[in-house]
Write a structure and sequence with these properties.
The chain is built from one helix and ten strands. The chain is mostly beta strands. The chain has a domain of 97 residues: Umud Fragment, subunit A (Ribbon).
Length: 139
């Protein structure tokens, strides 16, 4: 999976609020509560550290079924890289990739088993650019 359209989160200080209807049951239906709702700021929820946040568009199928082609990835540069984190990395300064990191084995794994693991030690210039924190998917 390649990552395209790297861009910094908006520097606009104006917050946008949208209706938040609470939790929606994905199993058995539950009675409505007269359509009561609060407001939620997506900026506050997902982009609250704008200087450590950027958004990229996924390109490819190597991270399916977790991340699909054209999903928007919200990436944080200030989070620690933990074993099994989904990261954005620069490989030899020429390409970006989105993979799951195995710190113990020093490999990058695709979630799609059709793709081979990448051995980090065999990469001449390897830089982690951030940790994928959220995924936005259009249906």
């Amino acid at each position: 999976m390649n990552v395209t359209n790297l861009r910094i989160a908006s520097d606009n200080n104006k917050e946008i609020y949208v209706a938040h209807y609470g939790r929606i049951v994905a199993g058995f239906p539950k009675p409505s509560e007269d359509y009561a709702y609060d407001e939620i700021s997506l900026d506050k929820k997902y982009l609250y550290k704008k200087h450590a946040t950027y958004i990229a568009t996924a390109d490819g199928t190597s991270m399916e079924p977790t991340i699909y082609d054209k999903d928007e990835l919200i990436i944080r540069t200030d989070l620690p890289v933990l074993n099994n984190s989904i990261i954005i990395a620069s490989i030899n300064g020429e390409e970006y990739t989105c993979k799951r990191i195995d710190l113990e084995k020093k490999i990058l794994n695709a979630d799609n088993k059709k793709f081979k693991a990448i051995e980090i030690d065999k990469i001449e210039n390897f830089i982690i650019l951030g940790v994928v924190k959220h995924i936005i998917r259009n249906l």
